[in-house]
Each structure stands twice: as C-alpha cells, then as structure tokens.
C-alpha cells in the first residue's frame, strides 16, 4: 500500500492530517486514499486515533524507526469501522499513511474486533500507553504474582496506566515515582501503595527512592536520563539482597536519551537492564497481548483520560496545551 500524496485528488480521496515538513505540524488536507493492495488489507472508516508521543516523534522525524520519508499521514493506531461493520482496534506498521485520516488501510492481521458498545475514544487513547507496561511486564519482566514494581515516571499517560496494569497483573507493592506533586497524589486512587517525589536535591531523591523501592523486582522506566541515573544506584545500593534480580525495563526517555552507567553498579547488584518496544519484542508477541488489554479498557477497568478533538483541527490539536496524563484523540 502506498499513496503518492502529491497526486491530484480523485474520487478515492480522504481528508487527513498531512505532514509535509518535519518542522511544522500536520495540516488537514484532502489526499488520495491508498488502495488495499494485499490479501489482508481493508479500508476502514476511522473513528478515533490517539496523538501519542510516538506519533509526534514520527511526525517530526525523531523516532528511532523514522526513515525521513515525507509527506506522511501520522498515526500508528486507531479504532475504525471495517467494511463488514465490525468495530476494530488496528495497529499500523510504519507506513506513510497512518490513522489520522477519515479512512485508512489496515491489515486485518494487525486488528482486533472490539465488543459492540466499546467507546472508540477510550480505546484509541489507552492502547498505546497501556501496551507499554502490559507488554513490558508480560514479555520482558515476566512478572510473577506478588512481585514488587516501581514505575519511574508514573504521572504521564503511560505511567498512570502502568500503575494500574501492574496492579491488574498481580504485582505485590506498586510504587509510583514522578515529579508533579498534584498528579502523584492521584496515584494511590489508581492502585499505587506508595509514591515518591523526584523533585529536589539528588541526594534527597536517592534517599527517598532507596527507602521506598530498594527491594522491588521490576522497574518500569519511562524517564531514563538523570532520574534513571539517580535511581539505579539508589535502589541497587539499598537492596537487602543485592543478588536478587532487579529487572530494569527501559520504556521511554522523556528525561533524556542517555545515561552514564558506572560499571561497578553492574558488578555490585544483579541489575538486568533491558528495553521494551518495537524490535525488542516481536510484532507477533505484541499483538498477542492486545486483546486482553483492549478488553480491560473497553470494560472500563483501566482509567484513561482522553481529550477528543476534531481531525479537522489537527493543527491546533498538535500545539494545544494538554495536561500531562491526558491523551488527545482525533476524531474524523
Ligand atoms: N516502548 C514502548 O512500548 C512505549 C509505548 C508507549 C509510550 N512509550 C514512551 O513512554 C514515554 C511516556 O509516554 P506517555 O504516553 O506517558 O507520555 P506523556 O503522557 O506525555 O507523559 C510524559 C510524562 O513525563 C513526565 N516528565 C517529563 N520530563 C520529566 C522529567 N525530567 N522527570 C520526571 N518526569 C518527567 C511528564 O510530567 P511533568 O512534565 O508534569 O513532570 C509527563 O507526566 C514516552 O517516551 C513514550 O514515547 C514507550
């Protein structure tokens, strides 16, 4: 499936968000609609598509999978109506024609049927941030019931869901760490046993992390950068038994792309650093985890906080101030 977006509009057109420069937000335009070209491809009427950090980074060319191809229609997933009327959640491969369009082409093998009555906006808002912790806990950490989890960066959309998902998947203690005091206060209501503020002097933050989370089994790290660099030695040094495995799952990098990692730390504690994302977990394994996550979001078991905006206002949506933790969802 490919779409020559410079081609003249034809009967097969659709309105879409179109990125023509990595320096500017997408604009709402009529573009030719790609034809389904492979056996499993179908055209779907898009009902909702989430504006995730991953979508922004693809649209500004900074995502690690970006190949620098323009123009592109952003959007990596969404909820849509199939030609047979079924309501689908679909994930798109890294194509140039994404989900931020009235219609797009989806692969049925990367789609799952949602129960009638599902709120498309909640699913479009929650699946991407939710799968970050769901997949990490199931496919990377191999979380066992009763194991303790620290969520580093628990105040964002993905972090808030990570607290709920760790709880839902049977974690023992769940600790949420973040820098926004007001949003930290919301975490106990979502299932956190304890919260840790990442604000303040390095030594104070390290002491707080050590006191609250030294003996966790799993860290879900959305921050990397300086907070991870503070937290790793803080936890490793304060552990009651340093030989106990500590699975450090790298998921996001909102606080920095790099850290300095002292070699001694890897000798002094059983620290197992790994990532979870496209590549480190295969597409089939990610897809296999999605139905249960979708079910939980559809059933309202996991709280998501969407902010629906019309696709036609994509330019405004792109730069609108949105409270962290909320997810903009574009609706055609
Ligand atoms: N690997 C995967 O499978 C996967 C899947 C989905 C998402 N992700 C990644 O996960 C990350 C978080 O995604 P999201 O959807 O939760 O984004 P989000 O809703 O925008 O939340 C980001 C959070 O990070 C906080 N933050 C920013 N800088 C910080 C710092 N220096 N120290 C502490 N907190 C800081 C922000 O809160 P304040 O600014 O208020 O402190 C905000 O709450 C992104 O990097 C995203 O790409 C990865």
From TrEMBL:
> Which Pfam families did the record assign?
ADH_zinc_N
Q: Which domain of life is it from?
A: Bacteria
InterPro entries attached to this UniProt entry: ADH-like_C (IPR013149), GroES-like_sf (IPR011032), NAD(P)-bd_dom_sf (IPR036291), Zn-ADH-like_protein (IPR051397)
Q: Where is the Alcohol dehydrogenase-like C-terminal domain?
A: 159-237
Could you tell me which Gene3D superfamilies the record lists for this protein? Medium-chain alcohol dehydrogenases, catalytic domain (3.90.180.10), NAD(P)-binding Rossmann-like Domain (3.40.50.720)
* PANTHER family xrefs: SHORT-CHAIN DEHYDROGENASE/REDUCTASE, ZINC-CONTAINING ALCOHOL DEHYDROGENASE
User: By what name is this protein known?
Assistant: Zinc-binding alcohol dehydrogenase family protein
Organism the protein comes from: Actinomadura fibrosa
